[in-house]
């Protein structure tokens, strides 16, 4: 028990990408909502809340742990997604070892009965499935007074492992869950981007998705409440609002909402984004969306095979869907068409024909995604029926099914990378200018004996630079640093940059590649686009040439080709 809980940290680690800045979106809405539920509880404003700032979120594990330990929270509420669960659990374990009295609560989409590893190591004191706003105050009371909040959705850490309760989780009305429109935390970011939820839950029951398991009956804000919230965001400088509902037009007030938005956004100062169930739209709905300022709409198609759509519980109205996508593009709306591969019953011919079909919509963007066998989904439960093989580690990517072989999966990836290659692929591995080098660059001095300095730096995206003559002769020291860096910070993104005074033997690069491959893979390396060609995404090697030094074009091309063959 904790006598008096005061300091509460809301921890949601970002998804790391190989971008050169800090553009990762990481909106801690869960913590925002949970803090509001605690403010409304009996203890009310007796709590002190702490959220991670963007510059703190960019820290590596060591510095992040040091920062949190210094603040010494009484309770840590962590939100787990597939992109942060392994890193979050590693950090939480170290914090728990340092401060055993700190209580840890984990929630988020990753908390599910059939999770492959979450329940195996008792790091969290409580695990919460689904919505936590209605029960978090009771969980904190249990920590303070020793009573157990006996809910089906809460697993308590006991001497005999995790134990779920027996009572239903209360699901308050959405108006009660969300902080009021005037709350100071409802603000756009420094780029004018704001996020807004108008509905909780989803009327669709897609077999690959967690939404149906998070809330049985959807709940929505009314048109008047939506309008008030948009107005306040507009007054606070929003120029873009993304509605994060899984199906925006499931709201019974959908048409009234778009009518109201047309009025307040007459000057088109705000651009709106939403994901829609597109095959039930009428022509007037599409005109209303365009008039209101919706500039981007995401549409889930997944497959054009009606047998596949039936198996995954998706709508089969392909003809109506196609017509509405055309109407939206003609109205000036950029449509993102979502496709998937690795679905049950799906064949390679369907994936290819669906992709070609989506290419016919001028001005649209295609997002063709590997099917993920997410914990807590019907698809995961039924995997044996369809002989679905997938990774047990995040991102749980499907490797093959009864109708798609591993070679088929890689063939799809080859097609996609020919058609969609771009932002996620490294632009240049060897050159005088490397546009993909991270901002934090740490030069590592090497000595002939292999001695090296302590690895400096503090961010989660770091380039280590080895400069000098005869780097190949110092390869033992370089490889030692490489191993040490990844072992100490396995969850961050690394770049190992050779800065040669002269041409070095290719064996130096081959030794570095071989050493990286010996180490456990980063979760980014398990996506099909990397694993099909055995290309490494999270730990890359570069050659940064020095001006006024002499290198042959043949050597530069050989370096580029070798690195392209091994890194993404």
What can be said about the biggest beta sheet?
7 strands, mixed
Q: Detail the poorly predicted runs.
A: none
- Estimate what percentage of residues fall within beta strands: 15-25%
Overall body shape: globular
User: What is the number of helical segments per DSSP (H or I, 4+ residues)?
Assistant: 19
> Mean pLDDT, rounded to whole units?
92
Q: For the largest beta sheet, what order do the strands appear in spatially?
A: 2-1-3-4-5-6-7
Derived structural class = alpha/beta
Radius of gyration: 25 Å
Question: What does the model show?
Answer:
The protein has 568 residues and is an alpha/beta fold. It contains 19 helices and 22 strands. A seven-stranded mixed sheet has the order 2-1-3-4-5-6-7, with helices on both faces. The chain has a six-stranded parallel sheet with strand order 8-11-12-13-14-15. Strands 18-22-21-20-19 form a five-stranded parallel sheet. Helix 3 crosses helix 4.
SSE blueprint and pairings:
Elements: E1 7-11, H1 29-39, E2 48-51, H2 54-57, H3 61-71, E3 75-79, H4 85-98, E4 103-107, E5 126-128, H5 136-145, E6 154-158, E7 161-164, H6 174-177, E8 193-196, E9 199-200, H7 211-214, E10 219-220, H8 223-235, E11 240-243, H9 254-264, E12 271-276, H10 283-292, E13 294-302, H11 306-311, H12 318-330, E14 334-341, H13 348-359, E15 365-370, H14 378-381, E16 389-390, E17 398-400, H15 406-420, E18 430-431, E19 440-444, E20 461-468, H16 475-488, E21 493-500, H17 506-518, H18 528-531, E22 539-544, H19 553-566
Parallel strand pairs: 1-2, 1-3, 3-4, 4-5, 8-11, 11-12, 12-13, 13-14, 14-15, 18-22, 19-20, 20-21, 21-22
Antiparallel strand pairs: 5-6, 6-7, 9-10, 16-17
């Amino acid at each position: 028990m904790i006598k008096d809980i005061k300091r509460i940290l809301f921890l949601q680690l970002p998804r790391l990408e190989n971008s050169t800045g800090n553009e990762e979106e990481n909106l801690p809405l869960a913590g925002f909502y949970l803090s509001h539920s605690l403010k409304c509880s009996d203890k009310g404003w007796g709590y002190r809340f702490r959220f991670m700032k963007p510059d703190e979120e960019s820290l590596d594990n060591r510095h992040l742990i040091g920062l949190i330990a210094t603040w010494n929270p009484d309770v840590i509420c962590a939100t787990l997604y597939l992109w942060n669960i392994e890193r979050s659990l590693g950090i939480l374990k170290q914090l728990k070892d340092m401060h055993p009295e700190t209580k840890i609560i984990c929630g988020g989409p990753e908390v599910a009965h059939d999770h492959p590893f979450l329940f195996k190591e008792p790091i969290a004191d409580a695990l919460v499935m689904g919505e936590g706003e209605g029960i978090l105050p009771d969980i904190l009371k249990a920590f303070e007074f020793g009573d157990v909040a006996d809910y089906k959705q809460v697993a308590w850490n006991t001497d005999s492992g995790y134990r779920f309760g027996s009572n239903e989780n209360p699901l308050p009305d959405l108006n009660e869950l969300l902080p009021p429109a005037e709350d100071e935390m409802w603000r756009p970011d420094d780029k004018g981007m704001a996020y807004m939820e108008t509905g909780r839950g989803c009327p669709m029951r897609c077999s690959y998705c967690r939404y149906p398991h998070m809330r049985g009956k959807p709940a929505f804000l009314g048109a008047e409440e939506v309008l008030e919230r948009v107005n306040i965001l507009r007054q606070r400088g929003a120029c873009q609002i993304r509605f994060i509902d899984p199906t925006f037009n499931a709201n019974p007030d959908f048409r009234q909402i778009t009518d109201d938005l047309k009025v307040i956004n007459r000057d088109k100062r705000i651009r709106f984004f939403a994901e829609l169930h597109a095959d039930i739209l009428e022509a007037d709905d599409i005109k209303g969306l365009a008039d209101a300022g919706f500039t981007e709409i995401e549409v889930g198609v997944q497959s054009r095979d009606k047998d596949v759509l039936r198996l995954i519980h998706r709508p089969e109205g392909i003809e109506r869907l196609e017509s509405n996508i055309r109407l939206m593009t003609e109205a000036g709306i950029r449509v993102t068409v979502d496709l998937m591969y690795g679905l049950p019953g799906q064949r390679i011919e369907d994936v290819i024909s669906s992709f070609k079909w989506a290419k016919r919509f001028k001005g649209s963007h295609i997002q063709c995604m590997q099917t993920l066998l997410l914990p807590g989904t019907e698809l995961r439960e039924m995997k044996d029926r369809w002989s679905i093989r997938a990774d047990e580690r995040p991102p749980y990517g499907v490797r093959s099914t009864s109708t798609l072989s591993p070679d088929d999966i890689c063939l799809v990836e080859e097609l996609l990378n020919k058609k969609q290659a771009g932002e996620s692929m490294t632009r240049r591995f060897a050159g005088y200018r490397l546009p993909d080098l991270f901002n934090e660059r740490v030069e590592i001095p090497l000595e002939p004996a292999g001695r090296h300095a302590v690895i400096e730096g503090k961010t989660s995206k770091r380039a280590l630079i080895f400069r000098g003559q005869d780097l190949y002769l110092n390869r033992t020291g370089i490889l030692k640093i490489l191993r040490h860096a990844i072992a100490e910070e396995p969850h961050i993104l690394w770049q190992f940059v050779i800065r040669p005074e002269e041409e070095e033997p290719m064996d130096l690069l081959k030794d570095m590649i071989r050493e990286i491959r010996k180490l456990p893979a980063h979760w980014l390396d398990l996506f099909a686009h990397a694993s099909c060609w055995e290309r490494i995404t999270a730990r890359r090697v570069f050659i940064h040439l020095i001006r006024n030094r002499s290198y042959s074009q043949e050597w530069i091309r050989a370096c580029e080709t070798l690195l392209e063959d091994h890194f993404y």
